[in-house]
TrEMBL record:
GO terms for molecular function: S-adenosylmethionine-dependent methyltransferase activity. Its main location: membrane. InterPro entries: Put_SAM_MeTrfase (IPR004159), SAM-dependent_MTases_sf (IPR029063). This is Methyltransferase. Keywords: Glycoprotein, Membrane, Methyltransferase, Signal-anchor, Transferase, Transmembrane, Transmembrane helix. PANTHER family: PECTIN METHYLTRANSFERASE QUA3-RELATED, SAM-DEPENDENT METHYLTRANSFERASE. It comes from Hibiscus syriacus. The chain crosses the membrane at residues 21-41. It is found in: Endomembrane system; Membrane. Belongs to the methyltransferase superfamily.
Length: 598
């Protein structure tokens, strides 16, 4: 085959000189500079680079090195901000992770936490336009739209009075799916059948609460309602409730016990919560029964109560209530009200659900990652007197030592000493340290190591509420907290808490190092840096943290505080307190995510 004759210049191309290569590199760098500085590509590349840096801390070795540097005070700049799309991030309720899990028994909507080494070590930023929240009690009726610009509920539920957008605010008319005219007339109707006023009822649980207008309306009656809902398609029900200053918690009734002790609530309410109470051999009804105080009231509004095409479900619901000897107080339209018997239910009677009493090996107040049991909790399984009518009314309940205090040795004496101690300490916080307790700046408060709830009890004269957290590996004293008419949950502080970012004004912890230690050991299960990054996630900008511990621990906490952008000061303990203890008071700085090009 013949060859094509090419000019010599084509057959022997000119070799590139070093000068040519350097010139090409120079012009390429100039072009790249202009692209990065003057086009959106620079922003996106910087953002992706920052995210890569953050995600690199999930490499255990790099992450552990960064934690050590922060603890030692050798990390001389704040921990990086998380990416802008993480403003509402909840590590254990992450839809991207949980959507891949089984939907059986709502498993995918329960808590599923990443391992600590899998979580980026970064600080959650506020959304653009975030403002210091509207103060209580005005916040009950309106909040800043820019603090959570999620319009889905307002668009879908506005006609039912849930919430509406109005100028720079979301406003809350107080309605709900089953009470579109407002929660107040609905509560007045319930008051015809149950003792809403008079201090008989104090603690309530609202299941599937929406934006918590039911719980918000009960506050004026002296009833403290803990409202819960999962992170669902509406995205922000609980975030709206907490922004309003109403006690609320992200939670799902699925495969595990809810993180509360037995016989905690005087009233349990479900308004169109769509819980299949009679499914799985009435497992969910039995869990509600575990939580309801003997003599307490169960209110269910909406399906299946006298609901079209749900005759069988309604008949089954009545059957399981009869099997547990619940007294039918009223059926009013689509609302049913039952009263739980004061003593042990009539089990072990024959019933179509195969329900039996739980055996003595089952501690009914053990409720942290505890699988649901298909057995009924006998009243006699917990020592003490619990029925409504046999316990003091509110507010006398607050200071009377309940029999459940005997979960601790010399529990009654411990309870009384703890009450006195915290009355003294809160007075010192207020009068000497000049903390904002009792001012409009503080509404949502958390006690991370609550024990008997003495700190919260000392605050009841203030217009605040306290989430009392009892660490799951410590003595199960949460029943005492509920018996004195306060509210709270079990939690393990080596995991993130089930709340949205920026939901608490004031976080208090006595003995912070004990939260990360193995009980009875000096070994740590997790580290203070991760714990304080989680505290920062929960705390609102300009919020307050108070930490009590030994001087050595407080020094370490102060070093970490700078890394999480808090402004700490260290104080001596109150003169009357014994032991080696100091108090760190810190304010979270109000910082915002800045554009990488600025």
């Amino acid at each position: 085959m013949g060859h094509v004759n090419m000019p010599a210049s084509k057959r022997n191309p000119r070799q590139w000189t070093i000068l040519d290569i350097l010139s090409a590199v120079f012009f390429a760098l100039v072009l790249l500079f202009f692209l990065l500085v003057f086009t959106p590509l620079g922003d996106s590349m910087a953002a992706s680079g920052r995210q890569a840096l953050l995600l690199s801390t999930s490499d255990p070795r790099q992450r552990h090195r960064l934690v050590s540097l922060v603890e030692l005070g050798h990390h001389h700049k704040p921990i990086e901000a998380c990416p802008a799309d993480s403003v509402d991030h909840m590590p254990c309720e992450d839809p991207r992770r949980n959507s891949q899990l089984s939907r059986e028994l709502n498993w995918y909507r329960e808590r599923h936490c990443p391992l600590p080494d899998e979580m980026p070590l970064c600080l959650i930023p506020p959304p653009p336009g975030y403002k210091i929240p509207v103060q209580w009690p005005e916040s009950l009726h309106k909040i800043w739209h820019s603090n959570m610009p999620h319009n889905k509920i307002a668009d879908r539920k506005g006609h039912q009075g849930w919430m509406k957008e109005q100028g720079p605010y979301f406003i809350f008319p107080g309605g709900g799916t089953m009470f579109p005219d407002g929660a107040t007339p609905y509560i007045e109707k319930l008051g015809q059948y149950i003792p809403i006023t008079g201090g008989i009822l104090r603690t309530a649980l609202d299941i599937g609460c929406g934006v918590a207008s039911f719980g918000g309306s009960l506050l004026s009656e002296g009833i403290l309602t803990l409202s819960f809902a999962p992170r669902d398609s509406h995205k922000s029900q609980i975030q709206f409730a907490l922004e309003r200053g109403i006690p609320a918690f992200v939670l799902m009734l699925g495969t595990r016990r809810l993180p509360f002790p037995a016989f905690a609530f005087d009233l349990i309410h479900c308004s169109r919560c769509l819980i299949p109470f009679t499914a799985y051999n009435a497992t969910y009804f039995v869990e509600v029964d575990r939580l309801l105080r003997p003599g307490g009231y169960l209110v269910i509004s909406g399906p299946p109560v006298q609901w079209p095409k749900q005759d069988k479900e309604w008949a089954d619901l009545q059957s399981v209530a009869r099997a547990l000897c619940y007294e039918l107080i009223a059926v009013d339209g689509n609302t049913v009200i039952w009263k739980k018997p004061d003593g042990d239910s009539c089990l072990p009677n024959q019933n179509e659900f195969g329900l039996e009493s739980c055996d003595e090996s089952n501690d009914p107040s053990n409720a942290w990652y505890f699988k649901l049991r298909r057995c009924v909790t006998p009243t006699s399984s917990v020592n003490g007197e619990f029925p409504l009518g046999m316990i003091p009314k509110w507010p006398d309940r607050l200071t009377k030592a309940p029999s459940r205090a005997l979960v601790m040795k010399n529990g009654i004496d411990l309870f009384q000493a703890d009450t006195r101690r915290w009355t003294r300490r809160v007075a010192y916080y207020k009068n000497t340290l000049h903390l904002k307790l009792g001012t409009p700046a503080v509404r949502n408060v958390m006690d991370m190591n609550a024990f008997f709830g003495g700190f919260a009890a000392a605050l009841t004269s203030y217009p605040i509420w306290v989430m009392n957290v009892v660490p799951a590996r410590k003595p199960l004293t949460l029943g005492v907290i509920y018996d004195r008419s306060l509210i709270g949950v079990y939690h393990d502080w080596c995991e993130p808490f089930s709340t949205y970012p920026r939901t608490y004004d004031f976080i208090h912890v006595a003995g912070i190092e004990s939260l990360i230690k193995l009980p009875g050991s000096s070994k740590s299960r997790c580290n203070l840096v991760d714990l304080m990054v989680e505290m920062d996630r929960m705390l609102r900008p300009e919020g307050t943290v108070v930490i009590r511990d030994s001087p050595e621990v407080i020094d370490k906490v102060a070093r970490i505080a700078h890394a999480v952008r808090w402004m700490p000061t260290i104080h001596e303990k109150e003169p009357e307190s014994h032991g080696r203890e100091k108090i760190l008071v810190a304010t979270k700085m109000f910082w915002k995510l800045t554009s990488p090009s600025h």
